[in-house]
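The freezer alarm interrupted the setup, so I double-checked each line after restarting. Inputs confirmed:
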Amino acid sequence: MELRDREVNYRALQSRDARFDGLIFVGVKSTGVYCRPICPARTPKSKNCTFFASAAAAQDAGFRPCLRCRPETAPDLASWRGTSNTVSRALALIGEGALDGDGAKIEKLAERLGVGERQLRRLFLQHLGASPVSVAQTRRVLFAKQLIHETRMPMTEIALAAGFGSVRRFNETFQNLFQRPPSALRRRTSASSANVNDGITLRLRYRPPYDWRSIIGFLQARAIPEVEVVENEHYFRTVAMDGSAGTIDVSHQPERQNICVRIRFPNVRSLPAIVARVRRQFDISADIETIDAHLSNDPFLAPLVAKRPGLRAPGGWDGFELAVRAVLGQQISVTAARRLAEQMVVLHGKPVPNAYVAHSGLSRAFPTAERLASVKSLGLGMPGARLAALKALATAAVADPSLFRQAGTIQETIERLKAIRGVGEWTAQYIALRAVREMDAFPSTDVGLLRSAAMVGRSAAITSQVLLNRAESWRPWRAYAAQHLWAADPTLLQEKGPNV
Ligand SMILES: [Zn+2]
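Predicted 3D structure, all chains:
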């Protein structure tokens, strides 16, 4: 598939226009390479250029990734392209390795998404110009390439981490693409003498602007002791996945437009899933310029957007954890909710081995649903109804591992969550917003939102119905509007309320 608007795309390439980075990829016939529009190499002749909507489409057409502009470091906007919910969900699953390994089948992926295999292929072609299998293959190549360039990991580990079934297949793929073994791509300059035990560091590029101060402040106010620490504008947290535990350290490099993540984790196969979660939590893939421009159309929101350009909607690290936080936070202050969460972590969280601990304030992983569902008493001092709600939540999460994934419409997601005992409309909307990443979710009954909206509109009070009506024009990004409203009220954290 080639993108239309050749002339616009070519002009973007000639001017190395960063606004097109991540949105188009250009295949160059004379060299067989595909590039980002910002490639520092000499601009190829127009007749040699083919423009693609995704790296996978370029690779499908027989082009290999450029070693200079490194397409693997382009901002990842794939999930934003088009409006297909199915494609976004499929991309999230592929990002976590759903099509890696020998047993992985496209039929299974289609089944998880509730669509036919043929329909899934058709949607991928329409939105990305490549098949799901090509997208998965490209993702493996690009992730491996990033690990080769940015880390000192041995090649055998990179093969596993990137999801290649075997080292032999990894070598073959790179030999075919680049006519040389993967190790030959490692530049000597990347040989920072960093100790391998310090973990591996990856840079995730975003499209500017990025309001780092707001998101780090948001996370700091809600940090659960032993699981999360915010210090010197770094976010540290414990990570439990696939039976192992480790930590991450996330920081900002504004001059390079990167979110930098250092991962200390015993199992390299978990790397793609960890990176996918960091992307989600820090909302790295948002097409923020488009969102800010859209919200600024409403004079009510425009001053808020102007005050905090690039404000992101933080995602939950884990759906179950987020839902537990939401229930713990019902009717009590953020500070009190943190204390309860800490108690629960100390009682039920699994310790992280010392070798992987990045900060002395971290010690345990957030408790799993299995643990909370099976333990006789949670041992927490809180009302019986909310203890029962926690239990019900844990049981539901064990029964349905996809509980916190997008499936169907927002309304269906909300109804599915509300079927859990103790989960009401507000909690369901909040989980949808942060954990399921429904960017149009909007907890219109939230007291903080209502108060902030009244303050911004200079009125004494505002009802949730009025706020809902007002929010119609903010679709499909009401989650960002909510974030702007919450951010506008500095006193929110001291209040009792559900703003977890
Ligand atoms: Zn290039």
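Quick read of the result. Residues 77 and 286 are 7 Å apart (CA to CA).
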